[in-house]
Write a structure and sequence with these properties.
Layout lengths: L1 H29 L5 E9 L6 H10 L7 H17 L3 E14 L7 E12 L3 E10 L2 E11 L7 E9 L2 E14 L2 E12 L7 E14 L8 E16 L6 H6 L1 E15 L10 E11 L3 E14 L5 E14 L30 E2 L2 E2 L4 E12 L10 E13 L6 H8 L4 E11 L4 E11 L9 E7 L4
Parallel strand pairs: 1-3
Antiparallel strand pairs: 2-3, 4-5, 5-6, 6-7, 7-8, 8-9, 9-10, 10-11, 11-12, 12-13, 13-14, 14-17, 15-16, 17-18, 18-19, 19-20, 20-21
Amino acid sequence: MGQLEETAAQQQQLQLQQQQQDHIETILRENENIPIKIASVNITGAQDINPQTLQSHLDATIFKAKTLRELSGRTETLNRKLVQNGLVKDIRQGFDSLGIVDNEVTGSALNLVSHLQIVPINKFLAKTGTNVGNGEGDGYLEFQLRNPLGNGELFRFNVMKGTKIQSSYLFQASSLLTPFWNMNLDLFKNVTEPARNLPLELGVVGGKFAIRSGFIQSDSRWNYEFFTQSMLRSCTNTSLSASDSVLFQTGDDFKRTLGSTIIWDSRDSQIAPNRGQSLKWFNELSVGRYWKNQLELSHLKSWFDNDFVTMSCNFKTGYIHSLSSQSVHISDKFQSGGPNDIRSFQSMGLGPKDHMNSIGGDAFVSYGVSVFSRLPIEKWSASNFRLHGFINGGNLIDHNGQALTDCLAALSRQHSTSAGVGIILRHPMARFELNFSVPLTMHSGDDVRKGLQFGVGLSFL
């Protein structure tokens, strides 16, 4: 009897809390256009943050709010940016009213006092683990030093070894320029084997400097990256039967590039979206050698209660324009195929071949239509598992400097296509797929993967 009374009391308390929350939301909705002004901000737990950096975040968010409706959105922006920029671990925010104050210049406004309770971020972090997926595996060790000077700095050192990545060493340093822009420096050294059908061992030593934006959708759906990169590449042949194209790539090569990435994204989630559109445009200029462009488009729509059925349509295309008589390096070319790309084909399994070695292409098109459904079992329908059906297709070619119209004509013919069904797990950190797929059309040199195929990652076709 006591347990029943306790359960009833808990339910009554939850109902009361819900009624209070509904009442607060009703008040905010009815008064969302009331003029407001942030009179002052009381902050606790900010001893590890540079006061000027914290002030810049306040000036860019809640101090810009003119109404209760704007304040609600800019409060969320402030919370997210303080966490994303590595300044806090968590933040709680509340407001007190000082009443309506009249001002001869700005008129009457509701004066508010903001209260920020900050949970400081852990400055040092060390972690180790393994990654398994797409027929590969690796182990890593990582050290992080976060916000040491109070301006959102991050220093990261990562060591990784695995099946595809023989060794990888990465040092990253980043710092804020503004609440919505940061600069990042990467220094790296790694040795990899790109794929089993490309018998090369690729060693790379270099660095990359980038300036990136970090806008959120309530402020802007556009984000940008501008970068410059320099690296020394060393290629070694790993097979006695390697093709002439592979042998031609061996030796040392220095690469220096300028590039940009422009993104427009209205999706409701980057990892597991149910609706929205996205556009991604990548440009890379290797001085005196080539100009590389890649465009990605995505559209999603859902139907029925709780987004029971979702359709995703994706399209990708790319083109490399050579600026010299020197051939483009294999590692700079486009590759197609794999569990995250055109399914039912091996990674780097499509496109030009030389004695069955995948040598990549300088123009491609790929597309996919996927339909996701919640599990038709009430017990599991609310889980992160989804049933999955898809059709993929595309083409990868070497245009050999031909006219753009001829290149487009070649891309439109003789596509490799596949179809399949499977199940996916939409984890907050990544997406996992297990599919059964079959090729529908293919070229004689395509490297096929018929049957079960497992994929893990953030981006899928």
